[in-house]
Amino acid sequence: MKTKLRNIEHHVLSNAWATLTKIDYDYQFKNGCWKRLSRESYNRGNGTAILLYNTVKHTVILTKQFRMPAYVNDARDGMSIEVCAGAIDKNEDPETCIIREVEEEVGYKITSATQVLEAYTSPGAVTEKMYLFVAEYKDEMKVNEGGGLEVENEEIEVMELYFKDAINMISSGEIIDAKTIMLLQYAQINHLL
Q1: What is the pTM of this model?
Q2: Which residues constitute the domain of residue 169?
């Protein structure tokens, strides 16, 4: 396959919480013309997310936490209702990551999870690929209250909701997080509950 890219140059703009890079490159359009383009790319690594569901109670576990970028974009309260999620540590596989995150964030000890999707939620600006999982939970799996890690400055509210209520929260605009919508709709399409 003939490449449509050449003369790629990376310029680091910020390397604080993650890396913001300006990338200049030549791109060949369908008409054969080459144009010099410039884009910014935010690299914070890859992540995982999981929908925990209970088939007996017809419930799901979600989280609620403050998200500064959501606040900046729409200055209401910045609170976001989401599935449990986290960044993959170096040399960690996605399933190991999500099992760890479930215990830290929502207080349940699961031993395995099923990966159902991989997705870029904002491929025009962010390099992060999300590995999306589902797993069934039972009350006896609860080992702590969750809430996240203090050393990571997390303050997470754990929410156990009826699945039908969570689905309705998409329509009402209470749930606007893409990974959460994808996993809830996956559960709905595949009749997990």
Answers
A1: 0.91
A2: 47-189
